[in-house]
Design brief:
- The protein is α+β, with helices and mostly antiparallel strands.
- It folds into 2 domains: 3-250, Aminohydrolase, N-terminal nucleophile (Ntn) domain (Glutamine Phosphoribosylpyrophosphate, subunit 1, domain 1), CATH 3.60.20.10; 268-456, Rossmann fold, CATH 3.40.50.
- It is 34% helix and 23% strand.
- The protein has 17 helices and 21 strands.
- The strands form 5 sheets. Strands 3-2-4-1-10-9-11 form a 7-stranded antiparallel β-sheet. Strands 5-6-7-8-12-13 form a 6-stranded antiparallel β-sheet. The protein has a 4-stranded parallel β-sheet with strand order 16-19-20-21, with helices on both faces.
- α1 (14-23) packs across α7, α5 (128-144) crosses α6 (151-164) and α11 packs parallel to α12.
- It is globular and about 75 Å long.
- The structure holds 1-O-pyrophosphono-5-O-phosphono-alpha-D-ribofuranose, glutamine and magnesium ion.
- 1-O-pyrophosphono-5-O-phosphono-alpha-D-ribofuranose (PRP) binds at residues 259, 302-305, 333-336, 367-376.
- Catalyzes the formation of phosphoribosylamine from phosphoribosylpyrophosphate (PRPP) and glutamine.
- It catalyses: 5-phospho-beta-D-ribosylamine + L-glutamate + diphosphate = 5-phospho-alpha-D-ribose 1-diphosphate + L-glutamine + H2O.
- It is an enzyme of class 2 (transferase).
- This is Amidophosphoribosyltransferase.
- GO terms for molecular function: amidophosphoribosyltransferase activity; magnesium ion binding.
């Protein structure tokens, strides 16, 4: 889950894109990039780090023009520390294209060979997003048959991407001299919304991973990009949409609602906040049945993502809700950090217990999910150190049992605590007196209660059913092996790769 954004405006967009990426920062902390377009030129600056560290005033000044795209990266393919894999990616043919991608391709290796051998194109990194860009570029060149781009050629190229690419992709592309393109894979696994701002100079359009970017930048939400759909925003301010998949089916990733997205976003017609509140309601019902005799004094959330569910759970159980952990706001999300050592150290630095809320108490801690168990282990110990006499833990998500191949960095089942331990063993390992997980059906019901029209979900990390149908046991074994290698290498490389890159394009003239 990276964050992507694209805009066509009647004013310079550099600050708009920067502010938008700041709002999407929770979706990726490893690298950031912005590209803009003015007349017949593209400008780009990208590099490793948080948005506020990547862009200096001189970089911002070099990003001229009234349209552009941006990206914050949480790597799922290639190398976490390789600055060359920061996005957007650029190719100069046909026309000049820049692309930013959220998701993960499951047939990247086969495509890479095909691109080299059949399409006669060169891929210069291990990023699947560069592969996606080259597939799109090849399809667009073929569809436009040597002429300037037109809508038919662009939509045909998206159909070509759907035909050849498997996996998850929410994408924004700049086509030089033509416009901004946004599209989503045929299952709509990763979110993508667009909105408008009607000004005296004409309509401005903004596309983003989450609606929270529209709110912040003063755009009105129009709707989600539909699964399989492509939308073109011309640099003249016009908008055209086309369904480019044969059998689109909406199946959004469950983990977006559990953890990835901000609660103030609306994804596929679902307020993430409302869905999390419902998760808390269902979890409270189950807690009552499972632990009818538990005498809990206080419900405490593990900040940040579990707060809406924890508050509702406390209300439903008629128990006081207290903020027992204080979060250091300068430390990012630990789950999306690369490498287990850094994740483990960060939990302790990030959260600290308010002893008064724990001393002599039986506490019910609530988290949105238990994935590797890093957070829960540390937190439960911290609660005990602060004087808690009993510690229960409730998870608003079911046990995470399977690898994720669609844009969440969980390629190795061996890292997932619930994949190799039964519930009792997980309870023992994290050191809780009682443990409760959400039921998968209840999690789906929580989201459907907000938007009943969603019939299917991408639920693979909970039930092992991979919606795209192409994920074989052999593939999972391969990424399991590679996942372990890459995790190991990331551990060794922590802190490396601070170089920023201005690739291929005229950038940072004064840098
Ligand atoms: O079992 P684990 O492997 O530790 O992963 C799960 C934890 O990681 C996430 O927190 P994170 O600190 O990333 O973000 P948050 O502040 O949004 O909760 C999530 O909210 C859980 O607390
Ligand atoms: N999490 C994501 O969406 C990652 C995008 C892309 N696969 C990358 O690794 O850069
Ligand atoms: Mg958390």
């Amino acid at each position: 889950m990276c964050g992507i954004i694209g805009v066509v405006a009647h004013q310079p967009v550099n600050q708009l894109l920067y502010d938008g990426l700041m709002v999407l920062q929770h979706r990726g902390q490893d690298a950031a990039g912005i590209a803009t377009g003015s007349d017949d030129r593209f400008y780009m600056h990208k590099g490793p780090g948080l948005v506020r560290d990547v862009f200096r005033t001189r970089n911002m000044r070099s990003l001229v023009g009234n349209w552009g795209i941006g990206h914050v990266r949480y790597p799922t393919a290639g190398d976490a520390c390789n600055p060359a894999e920061a996005q957007p990616f650029y190719v100069n043919s046909p026309f000049g294209l820049l692309l930013a991608h959220n998701g993960n391709l499951t047939n990247g290796e086969a495509l890479k060979r095909e691109i080299f051998e059949t399409d006669l194109r060169h891929i210069n990194t291990n990023s699947d997003s560069e592969i996606l860009l080259n597939v799109f570029a090849h399809e667009l060149a073929a569809a436009s048959k040597g002429a300037r781009p037109d809508d038919e050629a662009v939509f045909a190229a998206v159909r070509g991407v759907h035909r050849r690419c498997r996996g998850a992709y929410a994408v924004v592309v700049m086509i030089a001299g033509y416009g901004l393109l946004a599209f989503r894979d045929p299952y709509g696994i990763r979110p993508l919304v667009f909105g408008r701002n009607d000004t005296s100079s004409g309509t401005e359009w903004l596309v983003a991973s989450e609606s929270v970017a529209l709110d912040t930048l003063g755009f009105r939400l129009v709707r989600d990009v539909a699964p399989g759909e492509a939308i073109l925003f011309g640099i003249d301010g016009t908008m055209r949409a086309r369904q480019c998949a044969d059998e689109p089916v909406l199946a959004p990733c469950l983990f977006e609602f559990v953890y990835l997205a901000r609660p103030d976003s609306v994804i596929d017609g679902v307020s993430v906040y409302e869905a999390r509140v419902k998760m808390g309601e269902y979890l409270a019902e189950r807690f009552r049945t499972r632990y009818p005799h538990a005498r809990i004094d206080v419900v405490i959330p593990i900040p940040d993502s579990s707060r809406p569910a924890a508050l509702e759970m406390a209300t439903r159980l008629g128990l006081p809700y207290r903020e027992g952990f204080v979060k250091n706001r300068y430390i990012g999300r630990t789950f999306i950090m690369p490498g287990q050592t850094v994740r483990k150290n960060s939990v302790r630095k990030k959260l600290n217990a308010v002893h008064q809320e724990f001393r002599g108490k039986r506490v019910l801690l609530v988290d949105d999910s238990i994935v590797r168990g890093t957070t829960s282990r540390e937190i439960i110990q911290m609660a005990r150190d602060a004087g808690a006499v009993e510690v229960f833990l409730a998870s608003a998500a079911p046990p995470v049992l399977y690898a994720n191949v669609y844009g969440i960095d969980m390629p190795s089942r061996r890292e997932l605590i619930a994949a190799y331990c039964d519930e009792e063993e997980v309870r023992r390992q994290i050191g809780a007196d009682g443990l409760l997980y959400q039921e998968l059906e209840d999690l789906k019901r929580a989201i459907q209660s907000v938007n009943p029209s969603i019939q299917r979900f991408e639920s693979s990390c909970f039930d092992g059913c991979y919606i795209t149908g192409d994920v074989t046991p052999e593939y999972l074994e391969r990424i399991e092996r590679r996942g372990e290698d890459s995790v190991a290498s990331r551990e060794g490389e922590e802190g490396a790769g601070a170089a920023q890159l201005d690739l291929n394009l005229p950038l940072d003239q004064d840098a």
